[in-house]
Amino acid sequence: MAGQLLESTTLGFIGAGQMAEAIARGLDRATVLPASRMFAADVNAARCQVFKSFGVLICDSNIEVVQKANVLILAVKPQNVEKVLVGLKPHFTKEKLVVSIAAGINLSNLQKWAGDARIVRVMPNTPCLVGETAAAMSLGDTATEGDSVLVGAIFAAVGSIHLADEKLLNAVTGLSGSGPAYVYLAIEALADGGVAAGLPRDLSLSLAAQTVLGAAKMVVETKKHPGQLKDEVTSPAGTTIAGLRELEKAGFRSALIEAVVAAARRCEELSKS
């Protein structure tokens, strides 16, 4: 069913920023929805050129995107969502599905501003570019089971997606939405540590990135708790426990927890502004 739905899907991007680009490129690369069936518009001409460079059809306006696509990815900045949706409201019909990836903008407001369109909220992250997104979605009141299957298929093609209660999406944003930045910082720090220990920069960065990738796959594929996997690497009086001791002294675990909570809190603030 999902495959049939994707075959008849035309995808429009209202806003052509980095996240929208990652989704579009990821879908095109996965060959489940080619760029030739995608449309985009953005006030920034340079961003439109980026989309055009890999085959997305550029429209003169958001209205044209709405007219040409049956699934619309709303990818404008949160502070611009109301203005954009209200402007497009007369052009939305019940046949249009709007998928909002704007952080902090709740379903009730999206529905109010979009009128007749069916609404789904999704919080993806940029690794959809390489087929490894971690996303969650919540359905609006008028969204159908078919919409859930279709949106699930779109994002499953570029990673994984979970159905979640809307009240959890701020926490999802703080964890997986913002999480890649925390991991990039960790990779950079690991690489710097390798350089400090005497490794050449390119070797150190490659080892750091692959180490994080491999460790993540171990958690996903073995289904073991990360604490158990940590213990399996940690020998008595060995090198790993010496490093872990320094991380605990520096508050590494607590810092990551607080980063997620702070990002989730900021998302909640955005929803009230």
From TrEMBL:
Residues 11-104 form the Pyrroline-5-carboxylate reductase catalytic N-terminal domain. Residues 166-270 form the Pyrroline-5-carboxylate reductase dimerisation domain. It catalyses: L-proline + NAD(+) = (S)-1-pyrroline-5-carboxylate + NADH + 2 H(+); L-proline + NADP(+) = (S)-1-pyrroline-5-carboxylate + NADPH + 2 H(+). NADP(+) binds at I14, G15, A16, G17, Q18, M19, A75, V76, K77, P78. The keyword Methyltransferase does not apply. This is Pyrroline-5-carboxylate reductase. It is found in: Cytoplasm. Its EC number is 1.5.1.2. NCBIfam families: proC. Its main location: cytoplasm. Belongs to the pyrroline-5-carboxylate reductase family. Pathway: Amino-acid biosynthesis; L-proline biosynthesis; L-proline from L-glutamate 5-semialdehyde: step 1/1. Keywords: Amino-acid biosynthesis, Cytoplasm, NADP, Oxidoreductase, Proline biosynthesis. GO terms for biological process: L-proline biosynthetic process. PROSITE patterns: P5CR. One of its GO terms (molecular function) is pyrroline-5-carboxylate reductase activity. The keyword Transport does not apply. GO terms for cellular component: cytoplasm. NADPH binds at N62. InterPro entries: 6-PGluconate_DH-like_C_sf (IPR008927), NAD(P)-bd_dom_sf (IPR036291), P5C_Rdtase_cat_N (IPR028939), P5CR-like_CS (IPR053790), P5CR_dimer (IPR029036), Pyrroline-COOH_reductase (IPR000304). It is an enzyme of class 1 (oxidoreductase). It holds the Pfam family F420_oxidored.
